[in-house]
């Protein structure tokens, strides 16, 4: 093989290397070391050919046809460069316009204001499964990221990135984690609406965490119990801490009152009644707008605690719920399956049944001035409220006329307006608003049952409602109703003819006309 053939082959190989490296860089979105080296080798190979055959190359570019072709190539490259530059500018500084009637593809003014006031960077990680992507939530998060450079968003396939899921203690799909790198704070959001996401953003940008106090000293389950202790609530504590809450125990009977920094107070399944001094302090706390969660377990005599609930229309029944369905599903008949939820912020997103082992029922007494009662959950039709507690202790449960008939209320929320509500005729009023949520079971939050079915969703919704509602905002949901575009017969034809037939024919005609004029000249 002679020298000229080798040069010809090297020139062709050089051009191929340049083209391939450009294509690879375009597909990957960046110039990697491999593509840079390949392009450089291609330029060297082509350059050697031009240097050795400079006279021939110069002669080729000296004739009239070559000059026209070269000029056309240069102009084409200039136009392409301008297009790429303009596209890059619009990509970096993009601006979208929402032309839908309900502004479905635009964030609310409240959200934009909060994003505009961010002082620290916030990273958002949306955990999904490739088998069931949540595209609408991803699109919403992209809108947040476009609004400010301080908000970064990444969609994470939880199955392919288990280390990221473990880092943020995510154990299910459809969870959004908001993370602040400056202080390592994180906030989990499972209501993937604009209101839910923005309220999570508000909470994580607080400089201090909200505190939740759990009472102790009455046989309540331990917050610091080992993970393998079935009756402990250490798993609940860990879950709440991952939602950016501080969780602390408190002996309320030895304190001058509920701490001023308390976002809510939890009385979680006491095995003995509370003290008189605690009754006074809890009533004071509620009169000042406090938030109280009571897990009122059955087969425990707690008249003082129940009196606090009764004064606000929540009446704890002296029973334990027996559910035939629980036994049919391989469980315990004393573990009712809860699939019926009321209309409330706590239960609005619940779609999965919950299990409430060892649960009493409640009755609600409406008509108390300043108190609005909402049943949160009810037992199924196959259940009843067993009033023979002595028989239950012996392992006997038989439905009779004395028992309470299903469906039975197992959870109640009370919204209390202290400007109207009076515990007694001499009580003072004030403009604060208090909240109470009471459940008839404490075991459904323990280490054994917290992760069962829909229990965790119900529990976390309850805590987020009570502890987090003071700094949330209301955002009107977007109108997602279907709005079809109706075209007349003529409009439909024009929609086909103009882009599919007329424009291509016009471009072809212009090209033919230019070709004819050049041949004529």
Architecture overview:
With 521 residues, the chain is α/β, with parallel strands linked by helices. It is 40% helix and 18% strand. The chain has 15 helices and 19 strands. The chain is elongated, with a radius of gyration of 35 Å. The chain starts with a helix and ends with a helix. The mean pLDDT is 86.
Oligomer: single chain
Poorly predicted residue ranges: none
Reported for the largest beta sheet, the result is: 8 strands, mixed
Radius of gyration: 35 Å
Could you give the count of β-strands?
19
Helix content: 25-40%
Strand content: 15-25%
Helix/strand/pairing class, anyone? Answer: alpha/beta
Describe the global form: elongated
Q: In angstroms, what separates the terminal alpha carbons?
A: 45 Å
How do the strands line up in the largest sheet?
6-5-7-8-19-18-15-12
Q: What's the pLDDT, averaged over the residues?
A: 86
Q: How many helix segments?
A: 15
Write the layout of secondary structure elements.
Blueprint (H helix, E strand, L loop, with lengths): L2 H26 L4 H20 L1 H9 L1 H29 L16 H8 L5 E7 L6 H13 L3 E7 L4 H6 L7 E6 L4 E5 L4 H11 L5 E6 L18 H9 L2 E6 L11 E7 L7 H12 L3 E5 L7 H8 L3 E3 L3 E4 H5 L8 E2 L1 E2 L12 E2 L6 E3 L6 E8 L4 E4 L2 H5 L10 E2 L3 E9 L15 E7 L15 H14 L20 H32 L1
Parallel strand pairs: 1-2, 5-6, 5-7, 7-8, 8-19
Antiparallel strand pairs: 1-3, 3-4, 9-14, 10-16, 11-13, 12-15, 15-18, 16-17, 18-19
Helix pairs in contact: 1-2
